[in-house]
Every structure is written in structure tokens, then in C-alpha cells.
Specification:
- The structure is a single chain.
- About 40% of the residues lie in helices and about 10% in strands.
- It is an alpha+beta fold.
- Strand 1, helix 1 and strand 2 form a beta-alpha-beta unit.
- The longest helix is centred in the middle third of the chain and has 19 residues.
């Protein structure tokens, strides 16, 4: 007789939520599958848990065949093992099955790796070193999913429930708590705009289903505890925002004040100092201040731009064929800093 599988997950996990949707919709009971906390194995960082799930993440399924640590694989395992129970999550047409697989794949490949930009304390966020860029890419990828969703609905892949619904719905529940915290100041966050109208409409339709509503409430209820702990208080673009008065550099970046630009890209502006202290005297400034008025206020969130500034100094020195040069950062009025927007002085000659 086969043993009862055990699913280890956490209430806030959107990836675990995908599996709970399947379990609830199939009305599986404790005689068919057990749901437990990773704490029963000592937590996700414990030696015991890591032997079963080397990445130290949830969800994790333990079966008589061994450990299965990835949510999409677990989902497909559950659908096959309990195929005779409840909905199949497999549409009847090839077109809808292909659409479902595509939406789930887009989610797991391009949304899941960078969703940490909404809740992790510091970078990297997938391949992104800057939170703002990861957030912009997250929004772009939701629009990619939006384009892949069936325009007629009411489900993501068309008229029938699919694995795409189980995959995407918990992430929408998850990010609907977090994304508004990162909305630009003075704007009202709009779920349909963030996720896409089709995705939003499908999730609103799914929310009428008790199994999906149970997962939504579980995810959002768990995240309320994060709010109570002020989880986002120290995060740039959420709890931390740059509300200081703009400086002359903001006007130079906006081209409202003329400057002799030597180099410019999406992150950095380099221009000649109007009061040069050497034959070549350039200022390198980040285009976004991001609370970095002085070097002393640097945090892990600023690692990327600090490295970019130094790399740009080297790039410009080669471009101008400079010999030796100095890079100087004045920190504070007592160190002769006059503009409180971090900048590097590059001096040569």
C-alpha cells in the first residue's frame, strides 16, 4: 500500500498556493495527503530539510518515491496521482492545453525568479542588482503573460480550468499585497493595470470559487503578519523613499540647466565641473539619487550604482585617453561636499 504523501509549505508561499488550489479543488483529505510546516523538519535552513530540498525552499513533497522539491513538478505529480479526483486542470483542446502550459512556463521562468524584488531585504533579485529595474521587469513580464492569456476567458487558458489558473492565481494574491507598497508617490495602484486586464478578470472570476478564495485568504492573511512586523519599512521604493528637496543635479539631469556632457547612459551622467580643479575635472552622478545624498548613507541596495559609478569612471578615462587620474568623493559639508546628491570627481592632468 502506498504511503500518504506529505507536502511541506508555508501559508504565504505562492508556489505552495498552486498546490493547495489543486488539493482543495480535488477535495483531498488527510488520508490522501498531509500538509505540514517545514518547521517540523527544523525549518528550511535545517540540515534535514536541505537534504530533501537542496535549494532550501518551499514547497517540498515527500512521497514513497522520494523527495520532490519543485512546485510545477509537484503539481503535475498530484494531478497524475489523483487524476480520478475532482477537476483534471487539463483543458480538452490542444490549443487551450498549449496556452495553459505557456502561461505557467512564462510565470515560472520570468516572474518567479525576480518576485523577490517585492519582499527581499536586499539584492540581487534574480539577475538584477537594482530593485527598481527588477520591479520594471516584473511589470513587463506580467504584460507578456497578459498577451498569452485567452482573450475570451473566463479562465486564463479559455473556457476550462487549467494548471495555468492554479499557477498564476496565488502569485496575484501574493503580489497584490506587495505591489501597492512600491507604487510611485502620488499614484493609485491599479491591479488591472499591473497584472493586465485579462489576468485580473480571470483571477476575479476564480475568486468566486471557494477553493481559490481559500488560497487567496491564506496567502494574504499570512502576509498581514509581515505588515504587522513592518517588513517593508526599510526597503527602498516602499518604506524608504527619497523625499528630500531636489538639487541642482536634478535640473542638470532633466536638461533644465545646461552642462557640458561627456558621457551619458541610463544610470549615470558625466559632465565637466564648472569650477575645475585640474585640466580634466569631471563629475559623475547617478541619475536617481535614491536616498544616496552622501556615501555614508549607502546600503546594500546601492551596491549596484556604486559599482556602476566606478566602472563608468574607468570607461570615461579610456574614452578620453587620460593618463593617471584620481577619483574623489566628498562626504559631508565638513569634507567640502556642496551638492547633496552623491557624485564622484574624476581629476586628471
Amino acid at each position: 500500500m502506498a504511503s500518504v504523501p506529505v507536502l511541506y509549505t508555508k501559508p504565504y508561499s505562492n508556489h505552495g498556493g498552486r498546490l493547495l488550489v489543486i488539493i482543495y479543488k480535488k477535495n483531498l483529505n488527510d488520508a490522501q495527503i498531509l500538509i505540514k510546516s517545514p518547521e517540523e523538519l527544523g525549518g528550511t535552513a535545517s540540515e534535514q530539510y536541505l537534504k530533501l530540498s537542496p535549494q532550501g525552499k518551499v514547497p517540498l513533497l515527500i512521497t514513497e518515491h522520494g523527495a520532490v522539491p519543485e512546485s510545477d513538478t509537484i503539481a503535475r505529480y498530484l494531478l497524475e496521482r489523483f487524476g480520478g479526483e475532482g477537476p483534471t486542470f487539463t483543458p480538452s483542446t490542444l490549443e487551450a492545453r498549449t496556452r495553459s502550459n505557456l502561461v505557467a512556463r512564462l510565470h515560472d521562468t520570468y516572474i518567479a525568479p525576480i518576485q523577490g524584488c517585492m519582499y527581499e531585504a536586499e539584492p540581487p533579485f534574480g539577475t538584477f542588482a537594482a530593485r527598481s529595474k527588477a520591479i520594471a521587469e516584473l511589470q513587463r513580464q506580467w504584460q507578456v503573460i497578459e498577451d498569452a492569456v485567452d482573450p475570451q476567458g473566463p479562465f486564463l487558458a479559455g473556457p476550462e480550468l487549467s494548471l495555468a489558473d492554479a499557477t498564476v492565481f496565488p502569485t496575484v494574491a501574493f503580489l497584490s499585497v506587495m505591489a501597492p507598497k512600491f507604487a510611485p508617490a502620488g499614484t493609485v495602484w491599479d491591479a488591472a493595470q499591473f497584472f493586465g486586464r485579462r489576468v485580473h478578470a480571470a483571477c476575479q472570476h476564480l475568486l468566486q470559487d471557494p477553493a481559490f478564495a481559500r488560497v487567496w485568504e491564506g496567502v494574504q492573511g499570512a502576509l498581514q503578519e509581515w505588515d504587522q512586523r513592518e517588513h517593508w519599512k526599510g526597503m527602498l521604493h516602499a518604506g524608504l523613499r527619497d523625499n528630500d528637496a531636489p538639487t541642482i543635479f536634478n535640473r542638470i539631469i532633466a536638461k533644465k540647466v545646461p552642462s557640458e556632457v561627456v558621457y551619458e547612459d541610463e544610470d549615470v551622467l558625466v559632465f565637466k565641473d564648472i569650477n575645475p580643479q585640474a585640466p580634466t575635472h569631471l563629475l559623475l552622478i547617478p541619475k536617481e539619487r535614491l536616498l544616496l545624498s552622501q556615501l555614508r548613507f549607502a546600503s546594500p541596495e546601492h551596491k549596484s550604482i556604486l559599482g556602476t559609478l566606478l566602472f563608468t569612471a574607468a570607461k570615461v578615462s579610456k574614452m578620453l585617453r587620460l593618463g593617471g587620474f584620481r577619483v574623489v568623493i566628498n562626504d559631508g559639508a565638513e569634507a567640502q561636499q556642496s551638492v547633496f546628491h552623491l557624485h564622484l570627481h574624476l581629476l586628471s592632468g
